[in-house]
Structure formats: C-alpha cells, structure tokens
Write a structure and sequence with these properties.
Order of helices and strands: HHHHHHHHHHHHH
Largest sheet: none
Radius of gyration: 26 Å
Helix content: 55-70%
Shape: globular
Distance between the termini: 52 Å
Number of strands: 0
Number of helices: 13
Amino acid sequence: VLVSVFLPASRARLSRSLTENARAFHNKAEDESERLGPLLQNLTNAYLGPAFASGNTAGGHITLDQLPAVMNTSAPLCMRSSYQLLKDNHHLKHDARQQLGLFLKGIGVTMEDSVAFWREEFMKGGKTSEQFDKQYAYNIRHSYGVEGKRTNYTAYSCVKIINSTPVGDQAGHGCPYKHWDAGRLHSSLTSMRLSPAVVSDVVDKAKNHHYQVACMKVYEALHPTGIIEEGLNHPNQYFQNSLKYYEEKAEKEGKASGKTASKDKEMAKDKDAPADASEATPMAVDPTAIAT
C-alpha cells in the first residue's frame, strides 16, 4: 500500500528534476556540455512517470458517449489528430491504432467499449462484423492484457511517440510537432482557435526541435490557469491535467452561479416583503415545538 502511495510522487519529483536539469544544461559552458552531454541526453530520453495502463487519475472511466467531447477539449494534438483521421477515414494503420488505442485505454475506456468503438468505425469503412472480429478484435483484447502473454500494455509516452517514424500525412501516428511540416502544423493550431502569436511561437519551438515545449505552449494557451509543474512528458498526463482543469472550472462556475441565484432569490424576497414591519403577518408558532 505504501508503495502505491509514494511511488507516483517519487516518479513525479524525478521527472521534474530531469526536466529542470535538461533546461539548465543548455546554459552550461561548452566544456561542461561535452562532458555531461551524453549522460543528460540519455536521461531526458527516459520516461519515469506514471504507467497509464488504464483509467484516469480519479480511477473513473470515459464512456463512448463522453469520448467525442473529451477528445475535442482535453486530448493533445497527437491523439486528437489520430482520432480525427479515424473518424474521417474509418480506418487507421497498425501503428496508429496502437498509439491511439493505448491512449484510450489509459484515459479509462474499457475493453468492451474499445472493441465496440473500433468495430463501429471500421464497419463504417466497409468491414463486416466478422471481418473485424477476425482481423482486429484480438489485438484490442491483447492490448488490454486478456490475450496472449496477458501483458498489461501501457500508453505511449512523448519520448516513444517522438522517436517513432511515421511515413506520410495519412500515417496517423507520431508527434505533430516533430513529424508535420510547418504549414500543416500552423493550419491545425489555427483551427484550435489559438491566437496568431501563440501559433507562431509553437511553430517556432517545433522548428527548433523543442517538441514537448511546443506542446506545453499549446496546453498553457488552452488552459490559462492550468499548470503542469513536472513538465509535459506524456499524452495521458496532458489529458488528465486538462480534464481536471475543466472539472474544477465547471465546479467554480457552478458555485458562482449558485451564489448569483441565491442572491437573486433574496432580492426577490425583499422586494415582495411588506415595507413596514407593522404590515407583516405574524407567523404562527406551535408552542409544543419549542424546546424546553
């Protein structure tokens, strides 16, 4: 029990330290860069955060009814683009299915819902239910650890996605900040209603190979008060923080709305009340109800 409590926090602190060291590295003298370069480069390529094998931070599930909305508001560009390509073409190649499928598993889509989701999309693309079961269903169940070696596969980290090698615009996987050309990236960011200044900054970061920094810039622009202190290292980390941001925002707005409604009710009550106390009708009191 203690391990499950302290391990995530330790991983987060270590990940944050690695990110800070990577930033500090760029400010070191040339001789230090040569000496420490290989070590720090290897460290920053390691992902040591949460595994994201299944479920979100709160341990809940994302239903298929909720999926379109949360993919639009809380998925990072890599997953949003894969999801949209699937919706447009009703098919994804193997590597893209793995990248998106494990992400969906990590955010809390159940195996049963995942099979139903992919079946529906592929049948829209012309596959029969029998063809889907024969060609694709096993791999989905395998990724959830109920087939084959029964390995509980985890969602891909940023490092794994950045180091992938997608070919062509229809590959459906990879990191948009690394693998897309500037024009395509600019167009996609603009469609997300980001300001021209933010779009320009993000594209510039991507050109200079700061892919995770570029993704963080997008997150910060879409979540003005949202902070990921440990740095952005995983698509599911992006999703979880975004989901938490919007849940807290909705809660605050709900409380504010409740206060406004209560104030309006009090004002209406005051308006309807008699202007003079002598005009008020005395309230009947049951003597037996008074505590002695």
